[in-house]
């Protein structure tokens, strides 16, 4: 019997066995949204590396024409990097046919923590339906992992997970809906899911991004189902599976 579960921080699954499970990593603001956008715009793939210094070292393995460094610390572009963590930066003319070496605060750390899973995909508001379809077709257990904020709960990731839980109601068995985290995620979806932009403007990290001049990112990340792709993390690289 396949099961579905939301976890609100990656620390919750630190020591769990994931070898037969599909993990959906959700980091709405902004790593998931940026990855989805760049891959939709023709990026070859993302190589996530938490340390900026190690990311720069990895980039030297590629020709300058093939690689870009992207990432943030405290929401701002890392010094010396080509791009930050705003999905609006990752336009087709910039990222097409490029590899992105990617270093972010929460999303990359989460990917490292779940790397033992059978399959890992990236979810956001931007590719909700494609993500839901992928989960529907997976034959085993699915865990929706919210990246959170520095080990803490994040409202935006949890609402995104709640929308996915709601969309998968007919696919997973009834006992799935009795899990406390799934109930909580659905309640958050019912409360905030009708106005995603308002949600992003209310949540802690959304307010922080607005305070540093990145309010336009909230508008972009609040869009639903504008990309029909599923990014898959395998063998150290995130690449695109078209759905």
Task: Write out key terms for the chains shown.
243 residues, alpha/beta, putative 2-phosphosulfolactate phosphatase, 4-stranded parallel β-sheet, 4-stranded mixed β-sheet, 36% helix
Secondary structure elements and their pairing?
Elements: E1 4-7, E2 22-26, H1 31-40, E3 45-48, H2 52-59, E4 67-73, E5 76-77, H3 92-95, E6 99-103, H4 107-113, E7 119-123, H5 128-137, E8 142-146, H6 155-167, H7 180-192, H8 196-202, H9 204-211, H10 215-221, E9 229-234, E10 237-242
Parallel strand pairs: 1-8, 2-7, 2-8, 3-6, 4-6
Antiparallel strand pairs: 4-5, 9-10
Explain what you see.
It is built from ten helices and ten strands. It has one domain (4-234): putative 2-phosphosulfolactate phosphatase (Alpha-Beta Complex). It has helices spanning 31-40, 52-59, 92-95, 107-113, 128-137, 155-167, 180-192, 196-202, 204-211, 215-221; strands spanning 4-7, 22-26, 45-48, 67-73, 76-77, 99-103, 119-123, 142-146, 229-234, 237-242. By secondary structure, it is an alpha/beta fold. The mean pLDDT is 95.
Q: Name the helicity range.
A: 25-40%
Q: Could you tell me the number of beta strands?
A: 10
Find the CATH topology.
putative 2-phosphosulfolactate phosphatase
Largest sheet: 4 strands, parallel
Poorly predicted parts: none
Superfamily (CATH H level) name: ComB-like
CATH top level class name: Alpha Beta
For the largest beta sheet, what order do the strands appear in spatially? 1-8-2-7
Helix count, DSSP H or I runs of 4 or more residues: 10
CATH architecture: Alpha-Beta Complex
Beta percentage is 15-25%
For the residues shown, what is the average pLDDT?
Answer: 95
Return the string of H and E elements: EEHEHEEHEHEHEHHHHHEE
Q: What general form does the structure show? A: globular
Global Rg: 17 Å
Q: Structural class of the helices, strands and pairings?
A: alpha/beta
Please give the alpha-carbon distance between the first and last residues: 25 Å
- What number of domains? 1
